[in-house]
C-alpha cells in the first residue's frame, strides 16, 4: 500500500494483479487498484476530476483525464472517506501509475490538487 497526504486529504492505494489475456495477438496484463480518499481536513470537499499518468515498461507514458471517479463526483465530509476500485491494462508485466485529483473546498470555494502517489504494477511471476 502507498499513501500520501495533500492539504488534509489522504490517498491510499492498494494494487493487485488480475491476470493475462490476448487481444489482437498481443498479451496484456490486467491490474486492479483500490483507492481510498480520506478527508482529514475540517472542511467538506468534492472530487471533480482526475488525471492519471500510466507508465508501461514497454511503451511510453499514457495520460488519462476525466470527470470524477467511476462516474461519481463524491462529496467527502470531514473525517469520512470514499473508496473505489478500478484497473488498467499494460502490455508488459511491469509498470506504474501516479496522478492527481482536482478537488473543491466547500468552505473556501477554491479548487486544489491532491497528489495520487506513484504506485508500481508488477506481476508476481516476474519478480525475483
TrEMBL record:
SUPFAM superfamilies: ApaG-like. It comes from the Bacteria. InterPro entries: ApaG-like, ApaG_domain, ApaG_sf. Gene3D superfamilies: ApaG domain. Residues 3-128 form the ApaG domain. This is Co2+/Mg2+ efflux protein ApaG. It comes from Mesoflavibacter profundi.
Amino acid at each position: 500500500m502507498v499513501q500520501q497526504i495533500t492539504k488534509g486529504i489522504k490517498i491510499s492505494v492498494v494494487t493487485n494483479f488480475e491476470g493475462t489475456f490476448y487481444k489482437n495477438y498481443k498479451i496484456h496484463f490486467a491490474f486492479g487498484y483500490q483507492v481510498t480518499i480520506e478527508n482529514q481536513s475540517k472542511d467538506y470537499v468534492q472530487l471533480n476530476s482526475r488525471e492519471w499518468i500510466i507508465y508501461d515498461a514497454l511503451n511510453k507514458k499514457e495520460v488519462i483525464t476525466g470527470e470524477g471517479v467511476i462516474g461519481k463526483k463524491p462529496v467527502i465530509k470531514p473525517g469520512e472517506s470514499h473508496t473505489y476500485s478500478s484497473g488498467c491494462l499494460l502490455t508488459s508485466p511491469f509498470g506504474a501509475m501516479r496522478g492527481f485529483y482536482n478537488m473543491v473546498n466547500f468552505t473556501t470555494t477554491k479548487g486544489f490538487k491532491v497528489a495520487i502517489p506513484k504506485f508500481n504494477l508488477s506481476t508476481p511471476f516476474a519478480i525475483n
